[in-house]
């Protein structure tokens, strides 16, 4: 079975540009999570969806970040405009949630560099 | 106090050694517990869930102590391939379904 799919795997962009990261969760999973990982701050939860509905976006750094999940098999995380401090690895994860916190399966990540 | 706390290490051990990691969590109502493994420049991968009665998977044993709010991971007969960062993960049961990840403990197994 295919795992969580993310694209692109690497993105290098200039400050001020729009960046869109994409994620396809595991089929049948009902929850999707976006994380950011840096050496300084570790793994941070940005936002998560349950049944395509955003449940908690308190981790989204600021209005420059937005996320959507138009259907059960696709989600995007957009940064506009991007800044050098956004450089990080962005992971998407999915799970089948029964309400108590289920194990999550991570995609390979998108390594973002903003110059 | 951090919600999930781990010793960052690194733990440097020789091949064949037994090594144990502990992790403490702040919310006594937490329901779900996991250990994840993350290799350098890779995504976190589920190593094992942690059950109240304790559980074992080959060389790996996980224990949960609800009274003291800590979980542990024991690795026996360490292999070079066990070198990685081990993440303690807890569902904090604050009405959120999301998991809370510890900052990880780095293990380096040496020949």
Question: Which characteristics define this entry?
Answer:
heterodimer, A: 115 residues, mainly beta, 7-stranded mixed beta sheet, 4-stranded antiparallel beta sheet, B: 111 residues, 0% helix, globular
The whole-number mean of residue pLDDT values of chain A reads 93
Query: How many β-strands of chain B, per DSSP?
Result: 11
| H-E string of chain B | EEEEEEEEEEE
Number of strands of chain A: 11
Distance between the termini of chain A: 37 Å
Identify low-pLDDT runs of chain A.
Answer: none
Structural class of chain A: mainly beta
Q: What does the radius of gyration of chain B come to? A: 14 Å
The biggest sheet of chain B amounts to:
6 strands, mixed
Tell me, briefly, the overall form of chain B.
Answer: globular
Kindly summarize this structure in a few lines.
Chain A is mainly β. Helices cover 0% and strands 54% of the residues of chain A. In chain B, a hairpin with a 2-residue loop joins strand 6 and strand 7.
Q: Please, could you describe this protein's structure?
A:
By secondary structure, chain A is an all-beta fold. Chain A contains no helices and eleven strands. In chain A, 0% of the residues lie in helices and 54% in strands. In chain A, strands 2, 4, 5, 6, 9, 10 and 11 form a seven-stranded mixed sheet that branches. Chain A has a four-stranded antiparallel sheet with strand order 1-3-8-7, with no helix packed on it. In chain B, a hairpin with a 4-residue loop joins strand 7 and strand 8 (70-75). In chain B, the strands form two sheets. In chain B, strands 2, 4, 5, 9, 10 and 11 form a six-stranded mixed sheet that branches. In chain B, strands 1-3-8-7-6 form a five-stranded antiparallel sheet, with no helix packed on it. Chain B contains no helices and eleven strands. Helix content of chain B is 0%, strand content 51%. With 111 residues, chain B is mainly β. The N and C termini of chain B lie far apart (37 Å). Chain B is globular.
